[in-house]
Each structure stands twice: as C-alpha cells, then as structure tokens.
Specification:
CATH architecture of the largest domain: 3-Layer(aba) Sandwich
Number of helices: 15
Number of strands: 7
Number of domains: 2
Order of helices and strands: HHHHEHEEHEHHEHEHHHHHHE
Strand content: 5-15%
Helix content: 25-40%
C-alpha cells in the first residue's frame, strides 16, 4: 500500500527515458509521452476506429492503459489503434469471468500467485506439470490466464506504487506430462497465451525465470518469447541462489529456496500473500485485511494525461484525495498550484484519504454525475475466496477477505 518506487521500478534500467516506463498511473508523465497521447486522441477523433461517435476521448475500457499500449507499439499511433481493438476483443469481450467458471482449473495449481519480490511486485508461478489437458483447450487456458491476471490487476496492484509482476515458469516434470505427440498442441496453446500476455497485459512483466528446462521443450519455449522480450527472460542454473536475490525467504515455497511449504495443486487457490516482502515486520495490531476499505478509485488510479487541458480536472480532482508518493504529490502540487498536496506515508493517513475519496464518490452519485453510462455499468468486483493475507505494513496491499464468489470486471 505504501511502497515508494524508485527510478529502478518506474523505468526499466533505472534511468528515466522514453519508452522504458513500467509505472504509468498516479505519476507525472514526460512531455514526449503527453504529446503521443495527444496524437492518439486525434487519431481516435479522425478515424473513429474505436468509438462509434469518433470521440477523441479514450473509451472507458482502455483509458487507463492508453500510454502502456502506445509504448508497447513503440509509440506508433496507427499500430496502437490496432492494439486497442485487440484489447477490446480479447479483454472486454471475455470479461467478466466468474470464479465458478474457472475454479476447477484454479485448483489444478497450473498458474497461481504466491508472495511478492523485494519491490512488492506479486509473483506469478506457472507449473507446466499441473497443466493437465489445458494444452489441448486453448480457449479454456486463455480464460484461466485472464482470470488470474485480472485478479492481480484488481487486488494485487497499487497504482503509482506497484503496477508490475514477476514470473517463475517451472518446467519440472514437464516432459512426463507433455509427450512428443502433444508438443504441437502445447506450442499452439503457449503461443495463444503469449499473445494474450503480450497484447492485452503488455508492460506488466518485469522478468521471467524459467526453471528446470528439459531439452525437449527448449525450442517450444524459446519460440514463444518475442525477440524484444528475451532480455527479460533468464534460465538460472542455480534457481534458489538467483531467486534469493529478488525475494525474502518467507515469500517463496521451499522448492524455490524459500521457507513456505510446498503447495499441493489444490492448495494454490485462494492465492497466498505474506507480510514483509521488503524485509519489514508487520505493525502490531494491523493484521486485518484493508481490502474492505478500498474503492474503485484506489484500484484503478488515473493516467495523468495533460494532452487535453479541458479534461484535466477529471483526473486532477480525485488525485487530491488519493494515496500518492512524495514525488507524485510534489508533481501534482506543481500542476494545480495552491495548497500543497500531501503525500501518503502511513496507514492512518491512507485510511483518511480513502474515507475522503468515498465521501466524494457518494456525493457525486447522489447528484447523478458519476462518469459515463459505460463506466457506471461496470460494477465493483466482488471479493473472491479468502486470500492468505498480508498485513498492512510498509509493503502490504489490500487483499480480499471474504468467501463470496468473484466476478472480475475490467479496470
């Protein structure tokens, strides 16, 4: 909740430069990025490819991700428009996904969230040996992938602080469950999944560690990694030693060099998160999940798009009662002038800001001025089954605490 990213987390390589951004929301953008957003607005208005009215504003399902999609297409506006359409097809069309529709696959232990790295980024574990027959059912596999990743976007991210994930791809025993006869089907399914990750959830993965690679699968795996992403993928010879550089021991299962018990497939969901990802200790008396206090504004964040000056108040006003890092608070103060915007650096202030934000939202609802019809039609996601919680310490986030069924919607 209160993690403060450095340049190393905000920009790939730790140096502020064009096209290397990793954190996009609740944070100031460069003049080059804003200029490209302006070009994308103009293209939407002129070509009417995405909105029937030819509106220059970004449609609700893509507004938060516009800069991320632009960067994914190397700021080529025409290609970014095409990616927006893919985004609509592969994400908006498939959501919401109900927990009950994927629960049996979630319990297989093929793909699950477990702990966070030292930068508070959630860790996605993929264990091919638990894939079962999903390699023969591409749509089923993609549906599971989307549910798992949407879960992270909705429950495991904090805009402006934590917006990325890391991946452990474990190929142990994969050759026993994937025969030579199934390699073609596996390759086809893997490419569909890779396309989903690349096009719909672009700019989210910081790195992937591929462990226990059998020689029979090397070509299949390498063929699924886009050329420009290969630098993010490593094949560590000593997995435990390598992962120890990125994780506190209490964030990993024993099989990966941690101290948490190895999970049976059926125990991987609900997902497991733990306090102390940065090495800090939980504050006494703060073991209860804070998820129930959060709202949509907290989970979504805002893209600080200043390319349309007449629309700036739409995102500036909510930001004044949002949990911001010191750097973002200083930047917002400079933009709006007047009283300084205070950063959020403690839990008490975080709770106060959320209460203020909810009061503002309630007031808007009472006078009928909340967003567009499309925005209002998207309900808050219900809470999934109880997640193994983190405590609300310096490196915690608001995890769900309930056992009701979940319908994941877009954010």
């Amino acid at each position: 909740i209160l993690f403060e990213p450095t340049l190393a987390e905000i920009f790939q390589g730790g140096v502020q430069s064009f096209a290397t951004r990793q954190i996009f929301l609740n944070t100031p953008l460069s003049s080059d990025e804003v200029a490209k957003l302006g070009e994308l607005h103009a293209a939407l208005r002129d070509e009417a490819l995405v909105t029937e009215q030819g509106d220059e504003e970004f449609p609700p399902y893509v507004g938060l991700h516009a800069l991320r999609l632009l960067q994914q297409r190397k700021f080529n506006v025409k290609k970014a428009l095409e990616l927006i359409l893919i985004h609509l097809e592969e994400r908006a069309r498939r959501l919401p996904i109900s927990e009950k529709d994927v629960l049996s696959d979630l319990k297989k232990g093929f793909m699950y969230w477990h702990g966070r790295d030292k930068k508070c980024r959630p860790c996605l574990v993929i264990r091919i040996e638990n894939m079962g027959d999903m390699n023969l059912h591409k749509d089923r596999a993609v549906r599971l992938v989307i549910f798992v990743l949407e879960y992270a976007l909705r429950y495991a991210m904090v805009p402006g602080r934590v917006e990325n994930w890391v991946v452990i791809l474990d190929l142990a025993n994969a050759s026993k469950v994937v025969s030579m006869f199934h390699l073609a089907g596996l390759a086809s399914t893997a490419k569909v999944i890779a396309t989903t990750l690349e096009s719909v959830y672009c700019g989210r993965m910081v790195w992937m560690k591929i462990l226990n690679m059998p020689s029979i699968m090397r070509k299949v795996i390498e063929s699924c990694i886009p050329t420009e992403k290969k630098k993010k993928v490593q094949f560590p010879a000593n997995a435990a030693a390598d992962l120890a550089e990125h994780f506190e021991p209490n964030q990993l299962e024993t099989r990966y060099g941690g101290i948490q018990p190895n999970l049976a497939p059926s125990a991987t969901y609900p997902f497991h998160f733990f306090p102390g990802a940065c090495g800090s200790s939980p504050t006494a008396g703060q073991e209860k999940s804070l998820h129930g206090l959060t709202n949509r504004t907290f989970h979504e964040g805002k893209l600080w798009d200043t390319s349309m000056p007449g629309k700036n108040r739409h995102w500036m006003d909510p930001m004044q009662c949002t949990s911001l890092t010191p750097a973002s608070a200083e930047a917002l103060t400079s933009m709006i002038g007047g009283e300084p915007v205070k950063p959020c650096c403690d839990i008490a202030n975080w709770i106060r800001l959320l209460q203020e934000s909810q009061a503002v939202e309630h007031k808007k609802v009472s006078v009928g001025t909340v967003g567009t019809v499309a925005e209002a039609a998207q309900p808050e996601a219900a809470q999934p089954e109880a997640t193994r919680e983190e405590s609300p310490d310096k490196d915690a986030e608001a995890d769900p605490d309930g056992d009701s069924e979940s319908d994941l919607v877009m954010v």
